[in-house]
Amino acid sequence: MCPELAITLTRNGQSWVPTPDLLYISNERLLADWAEDGACSVPPDLAIEIISPGQTFGQLAAKARAYLDANVLRVWVVDSTRSVTVFYPDAPPQTYIGDTLLTDPLFEGLAFTAEQVFQQAGIPLDSQ
Description:
CATH class: Alpha Beta
Radius of gyration: 15 Å
Number of domains: 1
CATH topology: tt1808, chain A
Largest sheet: 6 strands, mixed
Shape: globular
Low-confidence stretches: none
């Protein structure tokens, strides 16, 4: 998992260099000769965007669609409403809240709940 690494993608036929809040690129997708001092040219397996003050879910949902169109395999949008919405290239997005278990065959063995994400981040229930 890499925090704030720029990636070089293509959007509407143009070069696009977004910087997701977090991303994951599997060893199978990462180029062996990639130099860490520049933007990565490999679409990540996973891009994670965290809704910040001044951003809306709609804005990040549109960005998630752009990531998927640029061959990112999954996009997670984390919202302060204590939810994680997973965007898929071939299915409608799914929102996980509370104790609903998030699993994905793309990330074998990974299983967690949205509530666990917020607990691990040290965000108390009353901070909403």
